[in-house]
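pinging the channel bc i need a second pair of eyes. not urgent but kinda urgent?? the chain im working w is below, pasted from the shared doc
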Amino acid sequence: MKKIAKKFFAAVLAIALVFTVAPVSKVEAAGETWINNGDGWHYLQGTDIKVKMADNMIRISGTGELPDFDYWELYKRPWDKTSYEYVTIDDTITSIGKYAFYGVKSIKHVTMDSKTFIKDYTSFEGISYMPIFRINGKQERTEMIGTIPYTSLDSIKAFAQTNSMGACYIFDDKNTATAFQTSVNPSIWNVYWATDEDAPWADVNSNSNGGVATPILRLANTNPDPSYKVSAQRRYPGRACYEAYAAFIGDYTFATTYSMVVEKSNKVVEKTDKPMQYTLTIPQKYRQVGRSFRLLAIGYGVVNIYDDLDMNLDTITFETDTPTTAYALVYK
């Protein structure tokens, strides 16, 4: 068994933006300037992104990223303190920045494209309870984080797994909806397709679905101990985790991600008295004769690397004394 601990340091790049246009009126947010010329639109200076608020709708148009907003200056958002219920985002908007619609409790419906990234869970956190997200299209936009592909649908899945608002997601067709819902474990709550008779176009009702968990982790047979409870979820983490994995993936290929929790006496165990072995089920799509697997685990300032201790094609067995954390499964 090989265990390697390496330091991971993140660098932050600060970009200064300079503006020269003198608008009729303007507000600034997170280094960006919004201009209102009195024609009903708010324009993001230096871009063709614009926002119009009318008829109970906030419409985001243009090309590129809707920027991050400063948590302490949310009042500078053009739509702050409004009571509009609908948000529609053109498919040419590539991503929705942090805190973009945070805390705008009136928002009940969001229409966006499958090619648009949700940059962070805060992008829509705190809108109305049980909001409805209509996701148009089937295509994904892909960013490369090192050698790891990260898609717009990955970002939407990450948001769906972290929000606690009881949101639902309506896709164009059943295949797209099913693939989205079952790509994680437990499966995502409240996923429908446009012709589904149970799809809640007005209100999320009692026809809920999802939340189905499949056991995928156990203590290895070498050290069974009924006093420990182990569980794992197949999850989509934040971008920082992908950056850490990309830094240490080497010549391996990225497969998927997990979060793992070990409990004893109803308390989460961050560190065990001695290393213990765990067996994780490998998803069917990644199993192949001759393929070798390892796990990359996020630690406190380190990335731990665990090689497979068993010869079973269906599982990976690894040993650690710090089990409760986020993992990436990689192979070659």
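so Helices lie at 152-162, 174-181, 239-248. and The longest strand covers residues 253-264. — does that match what u expected or am i reading it wrong
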